[in-house]
Specification:
CATH superfamily of the largest domain: Ribonucleotide Reductase, subunit A
Distance between the termini: 84 Å
Number of helices: 8
CATH topology of the largest domain: Ribonucleotide Reductase, subunit A
Order of helices and strands: EEHHHHHHHHEEEE
Strand order of the largest sheet: 1-2
Largest sheet: 2 strands, antiparallel
Number of domains: 2
Structural class: mainly alpha
């Protein structure tokens, strides 16, 4: 039987390295490759507030494409920095830190899984950054500031006693990593379990009004409207509107206004 750890002139044997690659879960996952031949953008124009400005209305498609590509680059750059600087730092404090709050073994194990998951996110994001740089040479010279979340946490920590830094960092990470709009919309069946009767998704572009109707199941008690904003206000929670069945009338439509990352339910006339 071949000894798999046999070292040859080129290093470890091919049999050993092949098996190593097969067992490495990250290496065997499919990569995220950008198909630049497909028209469109990762962040479409209608989802970019900057394009609401009057000065952007006459911009040619080439310049618009450049801005949209930079938006994706900034988004990926935030993932790389946010995941490493904050999330993994907080997880390491949970696992190894000598904190006033003691975490049990299960929570520490959970923190390990978060680290594994977040480093995979960083791997994917950096891989896509490299693809963008190869496609657009101008991106190689771009330098972005830290993400808003990272700046917010570090600024608050400057105002706190040093003994509170570690616990505050953990709390802050838990807040912005919790189940928010995107997870609720994309995984509603899993999140709401048996309470979800039906759902419907629509896309609303800037300056656009949309009217839609939906049959109401006899089991329905509440109807929730959720806006999938990129930066919802999680303190005010005005990215969602919840109505009881009694507040809805098939002959009197309710109007909800979308305004700057919020939803506003209009009063009945």
């Amino acid at each position: 039987m071949e000894n798999e750890t046999m070292v040859s002139k080129g290093g470890l044997s091919a049999a050993y390295t092949d098996k190593w690659e097969q067992r490495a879960s990250i290496r065997t996952r499919p990569g995220k490759f950008i198909d630049f031949t497909i028209p469109g953008a990762f962040f479409p124009e209608e989802n970019q507030p900057i394009f609401l400005a009057d000065m952007m209305s006459g911009m040619d498609n080439e310049r618009k494409s450049k801005i949209l590509t930079q938006s994706l680059f900034k988004y990926l750059n935030d993932i790389v920095n946010l995941e490493i600087k904050l999330i993994n730092s907080a997880c390491n404090k949970i696992i190894y830190g000598d904190l006033a709050v003691k975490f049990d073994e299960q929570i520490k194990l959970n923190a390990y899984t978060v680290i594994i998951d977040e480093y995979y996110h960083v791997y994917i994001a950096r891989h896509m950054i490299n693809q963008l740089r190869e496609h657009d040479a101008d991106l190689g010279a771009l330098s972005y500031p830290d993400s808003d979340a990272y700046v917010a946490v570090t600024e608050v920590m400057k105002r706190l006693p040093e003994r509170c830094h570690d616990i505050f960092e953990i709390i802050a990470v838990c807040i912005f990593e919790t189940t928010l709009v995107r997870e609720l919309v994309e995984d509603a069946e899993a999140t709401l379990s048996n309470d979800l009767v039906a759902k419907k998704e629509i896309q609303v572009r800037p300056q656009q009004a949309v009217t839609f109707t939906m049959p109401m199941d006899e089991q329905t008690q509440y109807v929730a409207v959720v806006a999938q904003y990129r930066t919802p206000d999680v303190r005010r929670n005005d990215w969602r509107v919840v109505l009881t069945r009694d507040e809805l009338d098939p002959d009197d439509a309710r109007v909800i206004e979308m305004a700057r990352y919020s939803l506003n339910l209009q009063q009945k006339k």
